[in-house]
């Protein structure tokens, strides 16, 4: 959080750069929503040099909470803070479509410490429990060895009263 960052800087706990310096660096990075073709090309080049065992990874999903706000980027004259799905939905958002959540897709390799966000999609809606149920029902149609979420079971989806507060079940759904 900004207050924690200021606390660490003011008390000389860590030698951190000034907030203005960080804002300048972020201003140099061109970031957009959706998938970046240049990233996938760079990833392909990186994986071509890796042994087969280090090419396997997992695509993780995470949801973050965002502060609802809309602003204008003076460099590109575009709005920031609105729902944005990249090039897939250009021109379909209005000023009332302020994003309050973001879905982050992250790639993590199994046999390497490489970890990279692949896409960030700001949205108004949370991932609904119904999406997890549909995933489970679709996944159950595959043989056990080919399931995408093999640890997900009926006990995770149809919770009994005693299972609703089990942290173990919740973390298995998330991971």
From TrEMBL:
By its UniProt entry, which InterPro entries does this protein fall under? TNP-like_RNaseH_N
Pfam families (UniProt xref) = TNP-like_RNaseH_N
UniProt domain Transposable element P transposase-like RNase H: residue ranges: 32-121
The protein's superkingdom reads Eukaryota
Which protein is depicted? Transposable element P transposase-like RNase H domain-containing protein
